[in-house]
Structures are given as C-alpha cells and as structure tokens.
Amino acid sequence: MVKTLPKDANIERSDRIAFRGKMQSGFGNYAAFMYRPEIISIAHPNTPDFTLRVRDEISASVRAQMNNSQSALALSFLTGQKTLLSKEQRQQLRLAGLAHIVVASGYHLSLVVSFARKIFGKISRFATFGSALIFLLLYIGVTGFSPSMMRAGIITFLSLWAWYFGRKFHPCRIILYTMAISLIMDSSFITNLAWQLSFASYAGIIFLTPLITKFLYGKQKPGYFPSLIIASISAQLFCLPLTIYYFGIFPILALVSNVLITPTIPLVMFGTILLAIMHLKPVVFVVQKIISFQQFIVGNVASQSWASFDFGTGQGTVFLIYLPILAVIILLKWRTKHSFRPSYELAESPDYGKIYLC
Questions:
Q1: Is residue 11 pLDDT above 80, yes or no?
Q2: Where do the structural domains in the chain lie, given as residue ranges?
Q3: What is the pTM of this model?
Q4: How would you write the chain as a 3-class SS string?
C-alpha cells in the first residue's frame, strides 16, 4: 500500500516535502514513483502565499453556506479546485464530456478579461490593459499555475499585449510562441494531459470556429448560443482523439451537456464570489438552484448507458481522426476563402472597450 500523508501534516501549496525511499521508473505523466516512502521533513515557504489565503477564505465561506456536493462544484468552477469533487462527481462529469469545465483555463480567464473590459474599457486603453493584467495575475495566483492555466495565461497576456499596441497574432504564431514558452519553463508539460487538451481545445476554437461561422453565417455575426454551439463543436472535435486515447470513452452527448451547462458557469462564478463576500441568503438560493440544474443535467446524461462508448485506452489509431478534421478545415477554408492573417482594422479601432483575442 502506498503511504499517504498524515491528516495533521497541514500541507499547503508551495510547501516542500522531503521523502526517503526506493525510487522506481514511472509511467504516463509520472516521471517516477516511490513505494512506502518515509517522510523526512515538511518545509513551509518563508514568504506567505497571499493568494492561497484568499482562496482558502473563499472556500471556507462558500462551504459553510452550501452542502458539500454543491460547494465543491461551485468552487471548482471559480478556483479550479477539482480535488474537492467526489469520485462520483468526477466520473459523471467525464461521462457527460464536461471534465474540462472544472479545470481553470482559458474560458475562466476570458471572463476575467471581460470583467476588466466592462469596468475600465471606457476609460482608456492603458486602464483596460493594466486592470486586466492585474486581475489575471490575481486569478492565476488563486487557482495555481497548472499546465492548462499556464497556457491560457501566456496566450491571454500575449493577446492583451498585442492589442495594447494595436497588433494581432496569427493563430499559428501565438500557439507556437505559447508552446515554446511553456516548454522552456517546464519541458515535462509535453506529456501532461491537461497541457495537451488545453492546446487541442484552443486550436479547435481558433482554427475551426471561424471557418464554420463564416460558412454558415457569411459576414453576419451569429448570436450567443449559435456561437457557443460552434465553439463547443470545434473544441470537442480537436480534443476527441486525446480523450479517447487517455480515457477510452467517447461521450456521445458531450455537445448537448456543454451547450446546457456552459452558459450557467459565469452565473455560478459570480454568485460564488458574492457568497464569499456578502453571505446573502437570496444569492445562496439562486446559486443552489443553478447548481441543482447542472447536477440534474450531468446526472441524467451520465446515467444513460448509451451516452458514451468504451473504446479502451492507449489506442494510437484514434489519432487518425485528425485526418478528416484536417480535410474539413481545408475544405471550409477553400469554400469560405477565409484568411487567418490578422486584420488590423479591428485592432486599431478607437473603441478601447473591445479586446480582440485570437
């Protein structure tokens, strides 16, 4: 049996733990593993982690006002604390194709940038850039610098920086730049599933979404829900081979569950923040009702025996799915004549309240 840490160890983020034991070669994302290790010491950093204290205060406040399952889901949306979810909750989310929504990443950062834009957008470009950058750093500090958050943070910063100077990145360039920067920081990310899924979903959104949108709507701008459906399809398609390879599961109803659940996430995040600050019973009631709706959808989708196919893990042939996806991209690009080269008419617009992220 593998040794676990004692309950009174008081382990927190940024702590350093020294073990003694026999090291053996690892598997998957694990470089090595140690059987029955002996804990030598637990060292706490001299510099206090302010953002960790903020996260813990928010968690304690929210958990005191809702039951465990609801507070775990709310906090996983807001701070990415998916470890709070029970094993059953994680399995249901996986079967429903919603495992990605409890991982703090680009979607969460886009909400943070939108918040900064609405408050400071009418003041100046510098105020928008500065406030967005501060909010990003605070949010990343609260959630932790995970591989998916690192990808999202680098891309968001580069996009904000380019927007501030009236420029835009070509999608290929910003992906390559972000990959290079993140791998320079930690080369082991290349085998990390969260890192791979994060880039796959982002690539689907920036490459396939504009092609489908232009093919269906031409020069017109689709509404919120059509845009959400198109983005969900694009992200799901690019993540599909990785999902099947690592989990062996093909969630058939993933698109349906994503369309129903994703629009409610910002409401839960905003309500959770209000709960942590104000302790208002009407807000508790509303947040609980929204989470109950989410749990109803996830539970019903996951309980359907036909909601997912089991292909078995480690099947390398599933990556051949990218061939027809590539063919669809080429066909749509040819039909729509869409150019991925950035147009600076938008980037140089005097409307400082808008940030055009690639």
A1: no
A2: 7-47, 51-347
A3: 0.73
A4: CCCCCCHHHCCCCCCEEEEECCEEECCCCCCEEECCCEEEEEECCCCCCHHHHHHHHHHHHHHCCCCHHHHHHHHHHHHCCHHHCCHHHHHHHHHCCCHHHHCCCHHHHHHHHHHHHHHHCCCCHHHHHHHHHHHHHHHHHHHCCCHHHHHHHHHHHHHHHHHHCCCCCCHHHHHHHHHHHHHHHCHHHHHCHHHHHHHHHHHHHHHHHHHHHHHHHCCCCCCHHHHHHHHHHHHHHHHHHHHHHHHCEEECCHHHHHHHHHHHHHHHHHHHHHHHHHCCHHHHHHHHHHHHHHHHHHHHHHHCCCCEEECCCCCHHHHHHHHHHHHHHHHHHHHHCCCCCCCHHHHCCCCCCCCCCC
